[in-house]
Amino acid sequence: MKVPVLALTMGDPAGVGPEIVVGTLAHWGLEAEACVVGDRRVLAEAERILGVSIPWKEARFPLEGNGPFLLDLANADPKTFSFGEISPVCGQASFEYVRKAVELALSGFVDALVTAPISKEALHRASVPYIGHTEMLEALTQAKEALTMFQVGDLRVFFFTRHLPLREAIARVKQETLVHFARLVFLYLRALGMENPRVAFAALNPHAGEGGLLGREEQEEIAPAVSFLRQEGYEISGPYPADSVFFFAFQGKFDAVISLYHDQGHIATKCLDFFRTVSVTLGLPFLRTSPDHGTAFDIAGKGVARFESMYEACRIAARYAPLYAPPLEDAT
């Protein structure tokens, strides 16, 4: 069976991206081929810092033989920036790595993207019109609605809201939007090969509202959404108190949990295993994974960045890429 080809973007050249990409390749043991999109000079410096040597092969498409392959965009001269410093040169370069990797995926030359961290501020300084990876990928692929799923072990967490003030996130907890989101969750879990996934809603308030004493969103919005979805045939339950539902999902009671706001799900996954939590973007024409951390400018270039999350992102991509079948229809 043909193994999947993963396009690894180098991330912001001034961050830890080059080091965690090189560290991952130095420990590669996955049933997949790696094709890095980056700058050879920056990667060579990362190899020097880590004391390893990667046997690169020049990427010519379609790829033949065994990698690791390198597509050198030669767009980040190390003389023009310093590790750990925000730079428009690095912001532009990091965007170009993603754009090229998307082109490769849409052309069928790679099966999935694994993206190293980028800097929102560096993108802004470079006048790149996107705040982050998800916005870039949606625009470059013309995807209508991309969802973020975190995975650590077999715990999967979807985020109903993400980068919103908490007050605004709470205001969005309405039955209609919860139903629409949950349908998408089921759609994309099935796209990963799960025929009959079991999904749970995390509650918003302490003790799931304690019968309305600690908040009424569970009674007035979340529970009615669950009831409506169950009538449609979905195996969904909740809302369950957020201090226990993630534990039970990790134990295997549920295949996925819907977190209602950013920190609710992030805390659960990162406390479980900060260095092996992976972000998965679903709803694109191809699978995309990434580490759950940022550029870590404070330790960039020092040879101390841990590569486990990048490695796990590659492992999850290799696992799901052969299964991922983007749905042609939208959830209604």
Automatic annotation (TrEMBL):
Keyword Cell division: no
Native source organism of the sequence: Candidatus Caldatribacterium saccharofermentans
Single GO MF annotation: metal ion binding
PANTHER family: 4-HYDROXYTHREONINE-4-PHOSPHATE DEHYDROGENASE, D-THREONATE 4-PHOSPHATE DEHYDROGENASE
Sorted UniProt keywords: Metal-binding, NAD, Oxidoreductase
EC numbers for this chain: 1.1.1.262
SUPFAM superfamilies: Isocitrate/Isopropylmalate dehydrogenase-like (SSF53659)
Listed name of the protein: 4-hydroxythreonine-4-phosphate dehydrogenase PdxA
InterPro entries in UniProt: PdxA_fam
